[in-house]
Design a protein that fits this description.
The protein is of the alpha/beta class. It folds into two domains: about 150 residues, Rossmann fold; about 200 residues, 2-Layer Sandwich (Dihydrodipicolinate Reductase, domain 2). The protein is built from 13 helices and 14 strands. The strands form two sheets. Strands 13-12-11-7-10-9-8-14 form an eight-stranded mixed β-sheet. It has a six-stranded parallel β-sheet with strand order 3-2-1-4-5-6, sandwiched between helices.
Length: about 375
Amino acid sequence: MTQRLRYALIGCGRISPNHVAAAAKNAEALEFCAVCDLSPERMEAALCPLPEAKRAKVARYTDYHKMLTEVKPQLVAVATESGKHAAIGLDCIAAGANVIIEKPLALSMADGRALIAAAQAAGVKLCACHQNRFNKSIRKIRTAVEENRFGRMLHGAAHVRWNRGPDYYEQAPWRGTWAQDGGALMNQCIHNIDLLRWMMGDDVDEVFAYTDRLEHDYIQAEDLGIALVRFHNGAYGLIEGTTNVYPHNLEESLYLFGQYGTVKAGGKSVNRIEEWDFRDGRGDPATIKMEFSENPPNVYGYGHAPLYADMVHAIRDNRPPYVSGEAGLRALELVLAIYQSAATHQPVRLPLQNCATTDFVGRFGS
């Protein structure tokens, strides 16, 4: 039997129960050794998905440096506030651990590149936690892209129409700040932005965008972003992201339009195939819509567990993870390019060299 990898989690906020549950579902491959957070109460809440006997075996730490030294984990998930992802990730890599970093990978291009370079130099794996790539709907659509069933891609659209109110931001004061988070695009919409870029060919030539803060005067960053993307292959992309939808989350949708195919993924988190039409006529659309749709309890979906399983195989097989650090950097780059275009009122050419969320402090007057 293959020895299990020692696993630890740093950060016990809103998304941490999904990481705990994902590690539990991969218990044959992962030994859950330790959890770290500044708040003991948050640690206990995050561990709730585990049976009491298993919770008792997880060491609790408030200092992740001490945890890395004493536990020597082989795989660490970083789920802290976004502004600390890079520094903690770099420390984990320096300690010899493979790392899963919650989205976004970092908040600057320099930090994102530093994480990738450090992981390569240390010979460890770096995974960006864009778990929606593992949705049944998205995997089916990706297969169609890889089989060239769309023909030439013409344009795509990513919409995130959600609601976030004062209660959400009061839970964690770092939310909505330029130093530790960014706004709707960086936090809520980056998963769908990742999917649009990935499906449409990855290489982007130019971005033009508007962002604004219309309803959330108690945060620093945007609550609305609208962007037009020109891909290197000649296709176009539309991005619309908002946290202003009344009174609750409405939808997250992804449209893809090619010469020979039209697809829409919808639902609360692109978890349902709602349109499926290809010229080749392969597969019954009604059956595909039913078979490749899910109904998760929240917008986080079911993707964390298969992402963890893939990361385990990447470590053991010495191959890149399905969602690599480079993939995370591309999603980050596109959001930062949107921010830069909106701030300068000019199109922004990619690749983006030096840009960070902190470049936009004061953008909306606070």
